[in-house]
Amino acid sequence: TASDLNLTNSLAHKLVERDKINIMIGPLNHDFMIALEPYFAENKIPEIYISQAAPEIEAKNEWFFAPPGVVAQCGYYTGQYAYELGYKTATVLGADFITGYQWIGAFTQGFEEKGGKVTGHAGWAPIGTVDYGPYLSSIKDADVCAAWTVPSKFFVKQYHEFGLWKKMPLMLIYTNEVPEADLVELGDAGIGMVGASLYTPRIDTQENQKFVSNFRKKHKKDPCEWHLIGYDAASVAVAALEATGGDTTPEKLREAIQNVKINLPTGPFSFSPSGYGIRSVLMLKAVKMEGKPAWQIIRKYPAEPEVLPIPPSSKK
User: 100 to each of 52, 97, 173, 177, how far by Cα in Å?
Assistant: First the structure.
């Protein structure tokens, strides 16, 4: 997509009208997904989105599927877990982007439903920010700081350099933005962080062991959540095609995707009636393992049969 909506739109039209595709996987960018969703629906092309979706702001239709589930899940459970850890007040910082507003909104909902209170907001940082000094210098004290920024490693590093760890612990609403390669690069600056995720290569299932082994052989490194999400999307598409016996009639293919029930590396998988993946949410903590920083599973919230309540956007 090259972060260009005009290019993305042109490529999408080429794929549908000239190449006659049967399934669309992507795009990754949330804004572009929202813009193209009606076009794919009009042309009866099942779209398998490769990120968490936000049903409160997208024009949901029966041709759209999101295996990673909804944004609310990770944000909401991070807020719930923050309160379970004993935090009563929180200050937040989000990326100035649709997903940033939704994650902060979901965290706030989960935290305040338990009895906590978001007492400070450090602002909205533009995507690509590398200097968080202006935000960190004015951050208000609370029991915990919860953030989602893109990229996150600069924020985590500067949070440590500003000495804020001594005042309040840091929670990442979604740890996907700090894969283990970045965690290792951060060194001690990231140790102790807690946050939500859909995946870690340490999930102990037979499917995940096979996935990790094959991934290491091919790419010489461990998979992260982005790799898992892409693998899931392809697995759903293949399972649907197997169910139809290769029949790509749009209605049959759409119905087959909706009814997919397979074992993925994270465990048994299916879609909610609205087309969102029913996923467990993991709480991870950055610890030292074998002498280097790594994400450790410390809590698991079970998969819900339907998506969580829609959180209000925190964008003001």
Answer: 12, 5, 10, 12
Confirm if 236 and 254 have CB atoms less than 8 A apart.
Answer: no
> Does this model's pTM top 0.90?
no
8 Å CB contact between 113 and 166: no
Q: What is the pLDDT of residues 177-213, one digit of tens each?
A: 898 889 999 999 999 999 999 999 999 999 999 999 9
Those residues whose C-beta lies under 8 Å from the C-beta of residue 28, and which sit 6 or more positions away, are 1, 50, 51
Secondary structure, 3-state, 34-86:
HHHHHHHHHCCCCEECCCCECCCCCCCCCCEEECCCEHHHHHHHHHHHHHHCC
Q: Determine phi and psi for 232, rounding to 5 degrees.
A: -60, -45
- Nearest alpha carbon to residue 276 among 20, 43, 47: 47
E strands present in 106-193 = 117-125, 144-148, 170-172
